[in-house]
């Protein structure tokens, strides 16, 4: 069983070949592929975590689609001053499928 922990969008995700992951918006190349930075690689009993060994490892993924996350509402209120503010936000996301860990 081969899997990797990759850094994507300020978070770390555990991925295997064929895994579908939703990440923060990532710009893909013209063929629709991206490369993710590995933090840890587990290949059966072998665990690779050194920076020089991980520089040789590539994790590739293909972009399935771009989407937006659920709307969150930010509300601020201060009592007895008449101050209230309401704001909404929807995060830009990308859904990718892992195609290879080499």
From TrEMBL:
Protein name as it appears in the record: Large ribosomal subunit protein bL21
Family annotation (Pfam families): Ribosomal_L21p
InterPro entries found in the cross-reference section: bL21-like, bL21-like_sf, Ribosomal_bL21, Ribosomal_bL21_CS
rRNA-binding is among the record's keywords: yes
Matches recorded under HAMAP family: Ribosomal_bL21
Subunit description: Part of the 50S ribosomal subunit. Contacts protein L20.
Gene label: rplU
Any GO MF annotation of the entry: structural constituent of ribosome
